[in-house]
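hey can u run this one w/ heme C bound, need the structure tokens asap thx
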Amino acid sequence: MLKINVTFYYHLIGIIAAGLLFVFSSVVNANDAEQMYTQCATCHGDKGQGNALLKSPALAGLSAEYITRQLNNFSSGVRGSHEKDALGKQMLAISQSLDKNKDVPVLSKYIESLPVANQSQEISGDLKNGSRYYQAKCGACHSGKAEGNPAFKAPKLAGQNIDYLRRQMQNFVSGIRGTHAEDKLGRQMAMMAKTTSGKELEDILHFIAQQK
Ligand code: HEC
Ligand code: HEC
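ok here u go:
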């Protein structure tokens, strides 16, 4: 009887110690991640809300999976190595300073956990047309309210800066993004980007700007 009790207490102490260690290490990790993110905050904002002046997109709201993919795309030159991609080149340089196996997963998880600020954007357009075109051409992958769909690896577009989205559409059309031999998903999106332009695209962007 006594023996059982002793082993039981040993187990209990073990479990408590492991629990404390877990809590402690996750606090340390959270601080590490926050610290690491300060180098990104200069351009992407302290809460990942983006910075229109610096043409830096919002990161809050994006999935860790998408952020990881883009950081790895930048560092390997799949994105940002086109000679005309001045803004992508900025990110390429930064991403190459990150450790792919250590920093990138920690940063991506941290950014995914940031709360999304509701940023309203005034952009003109026809909501009814925009909604119709969006559902016909984009919704199947990016979901009905532009919230993104991990199954298709399509990122959230809602809440993103509209000038950034417009520039990415132009980049896909002109081949600045999505033409690298290893950029399968970018190629897919480039094909889609070529199906719309002008007033129709503005209406689509207007619809996206209304989503949360
Ligand atoms: C000097 C300013 C600057 C800094 C610092 C910076 N970024 Fe960026 N980042 C940009 C710009 C500009 C873009 C948009 C590039 C483009 O137009 O294709 C971008 C794009 C991105 C994207 C792609 C977003 C999307 O929707 O596809 C990710 C992810 C990203 N940055 C993460 C980071 C992380 C993580 C850090 C910190 C380690 C960081 N950035 C630091 C300027 C910066
Ligand atoms: C076949 C699926 C599919 C369809 C349809 C589609 N997209 Fe995409 N889109 C993607 C994928 C996948 C990505 C991510 C590409 C990458 O990883 O670089 C993407 C990326 C984007 C980006 C870049 C976002 C960022 O944060 O940098 C924009 C903007 C975009 N899509 C807009 C649209 C619009 C507007 C439409 C409709 C005209 C559309 N997409 C239709 C799959 C799709």
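The pocket of heme C (ligand 2) is lined by residues 69, 137-138, 140-142, 152-155, 157, 160, 165, 168-169, 185-186, 188-189, 192, 196, 204 (CB under 6 Å). anyway lmk if its weird
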